[in-house]
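Appendix B, Record 12. Input sequence as logged:
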Amino acid sequence: MIAVTIHAGDQEPVRQALLDEHRPQALWSQTIQDDRVLLWIVVDEGQTEALLDRLESRFGAREGFRAVVLPVEAALPRPEEPATPSGDRHSSGAAPANHIGRISREELYDDIAGAAHLTPVFIAMTLLSAVVAMFGLLKNNAAVILGAMVIAPLLGPNLALSLATTLGDLDLARKAVKANLVGTGVPFLLAAISGTVLPVNPQVDEIALRTFLEPSALVVALASGAAGALAYTTGVATALIGVMVAVALLPPLVVCGLLIGAGYWDPAFGAFQLFASNLICVNLAGVLTFLAQGVRPRRWWEVQRAQRATRIALSLWSLSFVLLIVILWFGRR
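Logged structural output:
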């Protein structure tokens, strides 16, 4: 549902445009001031972005304009299912031409940008997840390590960085990089310091499993990064927990810190390779998935900036990915 405040004189043109081009499931209005009208528009989520773009381009510069996107849990009567492509697209129940099959750019930005905010809660969750992962690894307890992967807030900043490069948003990119640096630096330093005083055995299964890089790790990380981006763009938040576990950014990072603190440099380098591969693959897959989903800025000058940022990001992540493959190739010879 979209709530839009417009000038009373614009009500009829907006109503007609909505009915002709976007075919909302419901549309009603109420007068909130003598010259202001509040429109309530219920549309399929795949139409939200096109509708918001149209409203902003026409009324965004006018005083008092505001659009707010609200979730709709249920509606009666139930909306009709879209007709098959063989039918007339303008017939009853047909899918509108501007249907994009994902949540709007604005909703996606709001969901992901929140994960890149460096707050006391973010730092606390990072510390707590590092502590849980550290003792899970030392005690060889897979269930505890699994819990640490769910707690760790590392997926959000990386997907925020992918979205920032896709949209050419430098402000979001800076926030994402800062959150990533803190989110990886804090667990690493804590693990490295702890490794100097705690008994670290590199032969423990849960530690040893994270001291080498293999081809399957690249495939899993790429698939997980794509799944995470899809979960955000389609609004399926329940899938994110599985993605957090599959990406597994935290355990190899903590293993690397523990082993460095204990003086085991060779296996620590292997753990770092595994962490770096997960990080690179998640960002590469995230950018590619956002591009495939048609996530673009609205304004033409933002599109040009986003294209440059995307080319640079894809080049860097792709070169890093090729480097990982080279390391794997020579490491197996």
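Residues 2-69 form a domain with the Alpha-Beta Plaits fold (CATH 3.30.70.2750).
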